[in-house]
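wait is this the right file?? whatever heres the structure
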């Protein structure tokens, strides 16, 4: 029996779909005019039509698009209810490194197995939005070998699976009006590869907390937590809280640009915020994440991704 996914495109706001081989991360701001907001809502509430227009050409391409709405943009909607944890991304200024907060009313996370499908959906989307928005950031990501980042390590190893995936990435009934939505945080990191590659493999592994060839967890060195440990969040009751990462490498070697686009989906926004606090301020040991000595955060913004049914109703 054929897989039904071979016959229909993936629906918009399909947050827990498998990771793709290509992606576009598009951040935009909305023009202050009321007419611009109304037009934006018309476009994003029917984004499924644009996805189908492109995606139906190759159903094996698995084209999809998740739309995120920023805190200020949500306030402009003047809806009677608000996602409980939606707030602006707050700059994190550590003793050594800073996670900046940058503008963003809308996030479009376009995913597919083919980069040309991502490109064409982005083209049609921006054409439809017209002068109602201004592009604040645009990144084309790609899957790098066996899901590695440009530092050479496997990325996304700790993503939840099975039933834990929806429990970790999607809002549950405790915020019933926004159930099946998700909070999203995005950051664009640029790597100083020359400096990183000057380290020996053992030093790199100590910073990440995993072996480089086969991705096996390592014990932290005394007095200094690894990236793995700093981004593992356990609450006071001993419960570990996960997020869904769909990070992707990007780069332009001719410009000396090498980076990772971080995107995290979470049921609870505070989990991602705590991860970033640990990285930039420090965890139990009080030391920042040493990966930041080689990777600089260039952007930072937070969004709420409504369920598909809620997204379609926004223009009503």
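ok assuming it is, sequence goes like this
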């Amino acid at each position: 029996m054929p897989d039904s996914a071979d016959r229909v495109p993936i629906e918009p706001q399909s947050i827990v779909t498998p990771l793709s081989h290509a992606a576009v991360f598009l951040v935009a701001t909305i023009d202050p005019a009321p007419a611009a907001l109304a037009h934006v809502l018309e476009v994003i509430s029917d984004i499924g039509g644009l996805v189908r227009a492109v995606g139906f050409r190759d159903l094996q391409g698995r084209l999809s698009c998740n739309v995120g709405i920023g805190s200020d943009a949500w306030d402009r909607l003047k809806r009677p209810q608000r996602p409980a944890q939606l707030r602006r991304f707050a700059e994190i200024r550590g003793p050594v490194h800073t996670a900046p907060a940058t503008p963003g009313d809308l996030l479009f996370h376009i995913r597919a197995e083919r980069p040309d499908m991502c490109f064409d959906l982005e083209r049609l989307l921006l054409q439809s939005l017209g002068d109602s928005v201004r592009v604040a950031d645009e990144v084309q990501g790609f899957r790098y070998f066996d899901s590695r980042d440009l530092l050479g390590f496997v990325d996304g190893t700790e993503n939840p699976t099975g039933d834990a995936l929806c429990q970790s990435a999607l809002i549950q009934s405790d915020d019933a009006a926004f159930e099946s939505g998700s909070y999203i945080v995005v950051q664009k990191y640029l790597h100083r590869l020359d400096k990183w590659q000057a380290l020996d493999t053992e030093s790199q592994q100590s910073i990440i907390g995993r072996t480089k060839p086969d991705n096996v967890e390592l014990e932290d060195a005394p007095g200094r937590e690894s990236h793995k440990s700093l981004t593992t969040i356990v609450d006071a009751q001993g419960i570990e809280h996960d997020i869904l990462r769909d990070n992707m490498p990007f780069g332009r070697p001719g410009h000396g640009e090498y980076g990772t686009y971080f995107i995290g989906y979470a049921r609870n926004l505070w989990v991602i915020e705590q991860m970033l606090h640990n990285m930039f301020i420090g965890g139990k040991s009080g030391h920042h994440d040493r990966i930041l000595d080689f990777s600089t955060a260039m952007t930072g913004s937070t969004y709420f991704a409504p369920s598909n049914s809620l997204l379609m109703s926004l223009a009503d």
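Residues 115-129 form the longest helix (15 residues). so i think its the right one actually
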